[in-house]
C-alpha cells in the first residue's frame, strides 16, 4: 500500500524540487546552452501502400486480392456502373431501390427470411449501396465461412427475387423519407443546391428518389435495371483478409460464369453555368444556411492534386483555412464554414457552406465571395502552402490501416479510370505542388462571378438585402420538397 505523505512534508519536497530545477536552468543559461530542448526533427514520411494482386475473372470482371492472415476475417467489395444517374426520367430512385431490394428480397433459391437467418447464423453481413455513379455490394464474414457466404453473395448478385412485399416495404420507407426531407435545413439546402447547379442533368435529382417516383416504378423496372446495369462482367471486385487465393478465384469464376460483353453506360458532360444565380428559400430557422458554388471537376482531372491543396488553404483545412480565419476567427460570424470539391465520373461540384445568424447572412456571403476572389488574385504564402501539403502527406497513411481499406481504394481508383501507379506517386505529386500551381488552378476552376448562391432563412432579417448580389429567385418550400 502506498504511504500517505503529510501535507507539510509534501509542500517542502515540492519547494525543493522547484528550487533545484530553477538552479539547473540558470546554470544551463549561464553556460550558453538553451534552457529548452532542441526542436525535434522528423524525417519525411516514406510509405508505400500494399499492392494487391489484380486478375481478370472469366466473366471479364477485374478482381483485386490482398491476403491478410492477421485475423480470421474475410471481406469483399464490388462496384458496378449502376448509379442514380442512370435512373429513367420520372422514375428517379430506381437504381437505389433495385440495389436495396436485391439484398432484402431474397433470391430465387433462398427466401428473404431464410437469407437473413443464414447470414445471422454465420455472423456475416451482406449490404448494398448506391450513389450517383455506382451501385455497390459488400460482404464481411469469418474466414471459416468464406465459401458459404460467398455463395450467398453471388446468388444475390445473379438471381435476386425482387420480392413484391420487400419492394412495397422499401417504397414506403422512401416515401416517408421524402415526406420528411424538409425537416432538416441543411438537407434542404444541399438537395436544392444540387438541383440548381445541375438542372435536368442526371446528377440533379436525389439518389433516393423524387416525389411521386415510387408510384411509377414497377417490379419489371427493377428486373430490367438489374439485367442491364448490374452485370458481373462490368464489375470491379476486391477481396481482402484471411483467404486462400486460388480457392477464391475458383469460386468466383465458377459462380459468375464465363465472359460476355459488359454494358458500357456513359453520361454526357455536365453543363456549365454562364452567369450568377441568387436563390432563396424562406424557412423559420435559428440560423441562415448558405451554399455558394458551381460545377467542379471529374475525379480523373489532371489538376486534382493542386486543386486539393488549394482547397485546403481556401476552406477545407480544419483549423487553418482562409475562410475559417476570416469568417469565424476574425469576424465571429459562424462556427462552421468550409469549402469542398466533390468528384464524380462526370463533373462534380465545388461549394462553400456556412451557417450564421440571419442578420449576418449577407455579410458572411460577401466574405465568402471575397475569399474566392482573393485566392484567384493573390499568391498563397509559403507557410500556407507547406501547411496544406503537410496535412495531405501526414494523413495519407491513415487511408491504409486495414487490408479492406487498401482493396477498396484500388477498386474505386479503377472505377474512376485512374492509373495503376496512382497511389505510388501520390506523395510525390502532392509534394510537387507549387504556389504557381495553386494560383493557376484557382483562376481556372473557381468562378465566383458565375456562382450559384442559395440562402435559406428569414429573408426580412437579412442586412443588407440579398438583392445586393443580383436578382433573387424565390423557391417555394412546398414545391421543392412535398410528396405529390
The percent range for strand residues is: 15-25%
CATH class of the largest domain: Alpha Beta
And the CATH topology of the largest domain? Cytochrome Bc1 Complex, Chain A, domain 1
The CATH H-level homologous superfamily of the largest domain: Metalloenzyme, LuxS/M16 peptidase-like
Largest sheet: 7 strands, mixed
Q: How would you spell out the order of helices and strands? A: HEEEHHEEHHHHHEHEEEHHEEHHHHHEEH
Radius of gyration: 28 Å
Which residues form runs of ≥5 with pLDDT under 50? 1-33, 480-484
Walk across the major sheet and give the strand order.
9-10-11-8-12-7-13
Q: Helix- and strand-based class?
A: alpha/beta
Please, what is the average pLDDT?
A: 89
What does this structure look like?
This protein is α/β, with parallel strands linked by helices and 484 residues long. The protein has two domains: 204 residues, Cytochrome Bc1 Complex, Chain A, domain 1 (2-Layer Sandwich); 205 residues, Cytochrome Bc1 Complex, Chain A, domain 1. 42% of the residues lie in helices and 17% in strands. It has a seven-stranded mixed β-sheet with strand order 9-10-11-8-12-7-13, with helices on both faces. Strand 1 and strand 2 form a beta hairpin. The termini are far apart. The N terminus and C terminus are likely disordered.
Amino acid at each position: 500500500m502506498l504511504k500517505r505523505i503529510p501535507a507539510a512534508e509534501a509542500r517542502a519536497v515540492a519547494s525543493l524540487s522547484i528550487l533545484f530545477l530553477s538552479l539547473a536552468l540558470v546554470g544551463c543559461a549561464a553556460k550558453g546552452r538553451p534552457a529548452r530542448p532542441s526542436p525535434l526533427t522528423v524525417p519525411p514520411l516514406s510509405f508505400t501502400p500494399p499492392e494487391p494482386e489484380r486478375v481478370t475473372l472469366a466473366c471479364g470482371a477485374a478482381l483485386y486480392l490482398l491476403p491478410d492472415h492477421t485475423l480470421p476475417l474475410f471481406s469483399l467489395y464490388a462496384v458496378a456502373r449502376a448509379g442514380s444517374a442512370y435512373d429513367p426520367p420520372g422514375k428517379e430512385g430506381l437504381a437505389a431501390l433495385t440495389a436495396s431490394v436485391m439484398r432484402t428480397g431474397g433470391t430465387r433459391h433462398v427466401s428473404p427470411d431464410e437469407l437473413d437467418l443464414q447470414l445471422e447464423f454465420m455472423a456475416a453481413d451482406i449490404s448494398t449501396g448506391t450513389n450517383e455513379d455506382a451501385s455497390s455490394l459488400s460482404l464481411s464474414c469469418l474466414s471459416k465461412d468464406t465459401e458459404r457466404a460467398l455463395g450467398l453473395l453471388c446468388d444475390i448478385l445473379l438471381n435476386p427475387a425482387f420480392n413484391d412485399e420487400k419492394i412495397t416495404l422499401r417504397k414506403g420507407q422512401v416515401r416517408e423519407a421524402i415526406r420528411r426531407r424538409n425537416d432538416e435545413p441543411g438537407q434542404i439546402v444541399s438537395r436544392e443546391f444540387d438541383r440548381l447547379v445541375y438542372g435536368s442533368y442526371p446528377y440533379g435529382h436525389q439518389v433516393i428518389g423524387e416525389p411521386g417516383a415510387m408510384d411509377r416504378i414497377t417490379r419489371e423496372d427493377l428486373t430490367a435495371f438489374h439485367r442491364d446495369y448490374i452485370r458481373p462482367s462490368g464489375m470491379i471486385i476486391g477481396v481482402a483478409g484471411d483467404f486462400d487465393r486460388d480457392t477464391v478465384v475458383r469460386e468466383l469464376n465458377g459462380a459468375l460464369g464465363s465472359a460476355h460483353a459488359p454494358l458500357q453506360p456513359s453520361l454526357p458532360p455536365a453543363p456549365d453555368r454562364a452567369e450568377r444565380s441568387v436563390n432563396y428559400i424562406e424557412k423559420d430557422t435559428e440560423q441562415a444556411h448558405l451554399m455558394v458554388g458551381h460545377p467542379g471537376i471529374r475525379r480523373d482531372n489532371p489538376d486534382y492534386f493542386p486543386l486539393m491543396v488549394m482547397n485546403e488553404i481556401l476552406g477545407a483545412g480544419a483549423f487553418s483555412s482562409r475562410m475559417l480565419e476570416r469568417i469565424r476567427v476574425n469576424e465571429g460570424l459562424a462556427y462552421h464554414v468550409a469549402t469542398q470539391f466533390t468528384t464524380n465520373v462526370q463533373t462534380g461540384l465545388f461549394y462553400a457552406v456556412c451557417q450564421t445568424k440571419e442578420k449576418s447572412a449577407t455579410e458572411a456571403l460577401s466574405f465568402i465571395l471575397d475569399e474566392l476572389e482573393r485566392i484567384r488574385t493573390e499568391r498563397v504564402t509559403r507557410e500556407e502552402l507547406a501547411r496544406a501539403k503537410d496535412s495531405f502527406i501526414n494523413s495519407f497513411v491513415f487511408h491504409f490501416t486495414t487490408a479492406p481499406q487498401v482493396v477498396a481504394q484500388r477498386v474505386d481508383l479503377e472505377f474512376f479510370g485512374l492509373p495503376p501507379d496512382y497511389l505510388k506517386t501520390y506523395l510525390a505529386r502532392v509534394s510537387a505542388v507549387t504556389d504557381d500551381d495553386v494560383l493557376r488552378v484557382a483562376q481556372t476552376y473557381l468562378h465566383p462571378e458565375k456562382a450559384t448562391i442559395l440562402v435559406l432563412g428569414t429573408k426580412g432579417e437579412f442586412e443588407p438585402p440579398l438583392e445586393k448580389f443580383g436578382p433573387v429567385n424565390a423557391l417555394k418550400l412546398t414545391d421543392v420538397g412535398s410528396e405529390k
